[in-house]
Design brief:
Length: about 375
């Protein structure tokens, strides 16, 4: 038996070209009968040592095409791939834990990396805004706009509006401190704006790309529309915009595969664009570009305080509170409350012990003085 087994292995090694890729369908797996499966637990013969047999068991079959780099879920046995159950999404509590992990990672970023990633996120959103303008907006523009957030998520950009979800949830879950939240939001907002301005100036205005496709007037009209709205309207539209953006981010975090992440992002982002909501980072590109193209009636003060400020505040509430805080409360609030209570109890006990020790020390000193 040992000789036959060694001969078969030798033939396999010398003639791998005769191997044909197996059929991975469930029917093929069922049809692979047990008699055709080689003995996976050979009996040790007197002539075989335990060491040599273990080496044979661990020896990789060169016919196994999985060794070529293709990574399929499941096990490979007797030349047949047997799939195992695979979850394409995380359950909600694990999704929240992934958000916590992202929060801790982002809080630990050095300032230079945070600034660069924030700048690149601004570039991605400006790219999407430029694409929206180039096709004249509408349904097609809304369908193309999600390319920006897809790039942010897959390339790990630091987008202010997405970080509203991550840092509010992480802060409430006790994963990051308030100063980390303020640091991330400040740097992300400023460098998102910088990336948008660079794209608007160089690729939107100086390149004449929008003029070439006949959309210069449309860019001016969009800028004026977004800048000359009532403050409250922009604020409410900001809530709606980042609610949908952060729902897309949450769903993308839930998805395990790239295709799933893209689909999870696409529809909420396209939806908020079609609804006419206001995303503060998108407006950091659209309004300055319109100003460069000829919307001279929009001042810097109006841009910052009448357009971007209400959109920013609305985005924080829509993404941070209505998504981040809500899902923290639903999936982790009790554990966080227990942790807070434990910390308060520990602090109270420590201070009580110190106070009692101090009082005892004073009593001892007083007794000693009275005795003298």
């Amino acid at each position: 038996m040992a000789q036959a087994s060694s001969k078969t292995s030798k033939q396999i090694l010398e003639e791998p070209e005769d191997f044909e890729a197996p059929d991975f369908s469930h029917s093929a797996v069922r049809e692979s009968a047990a008699p055709n499966v080689p003995n996976m637990n050979p009996v040790l013969h007197d002539s075989d040592s335990a060491e040599s047999t273990e080496h044979k068991m661990e020896q990789k079959d060169p016919r196994n095409f999985l060794q070529s780099g293709l990574n399929l879920p499941g096990i490979f046995r007797a030349g047949v791939h047997i799939p195992t159950p695979y979850a394409a999404t995380k359950p909600p509590k694990k999704t929240l834990q992934a958000v916590y992990n992202a929060g801790r990672y982002k809080a630990a970023l050095t300032l230079d990396i945070l600034a660069i990633q924030s700048f690149m996120a601004g570039i991605y959103i400006a790219m999407a805004g430029h694409l929206f303008l180039s096709v004249g907006g509408g349904v097609l523009g809304a369908a193309l706009f999600p390319t920006g957030l897809i790039a942010v998520v897959l390339a790990s950009g630091e987008l202010f509006t997405g970080d509203a979800l991550i840092f509010i949830a992480s802060l409430l879950g006790g994963q990051v401190k308030a100063r980390s939240l303020l640091r991330n939001w400040t740097v992300a907002w400023i460098f998102n704006f910088s990336g948008c301005l660079v794209w608007a100036a160089l690729l939107g205005y100086c390149s004449d790309a929008l003029t070439d496709v006949g959309q210069a007037d449309f860019a001016i009209a969009v800028a004026r529309k977004k800048a000359f709205q009532p403050w409250v309207n922009i604020f409410l539209k900001g809530i709606g915009a980042n609610f949908m953006v952060c729902i897309g981010v949450w769903q993308a975090t839930c998805a395990e595969e790239v295709a799933g992440k893209i689909l999870a992002i696409w529809f909420p982002i396209a939806g908020f664009v079609l609804m006419g909501f206001d995303h503060c980072i998108a407006n950091q590109f659209l309004i300055p570009l319109g100003m460069m193209m000829g919307a001279k009636d929009i001042s810097a003060v109006r841009l910052l305080f009448q357009a971007l400020l209400p959109a920013t505040l609305g985005n924080v509430i829509g993404g941070g509170i209505l998504v981040g805080a809500v899902y923290w409360y639903v999936f982790d609030s009790m554990e966080s409350f227990n942790g807070y209570r434990a910390k308060i109890r520990q602090t109270w006990n420590r201070r009580s012990t110190m106070l009692r020790a101090s009082i005892s020390s004073r009593n001892i000193n007083t007794s000693a003085n009275d005795a003298v």
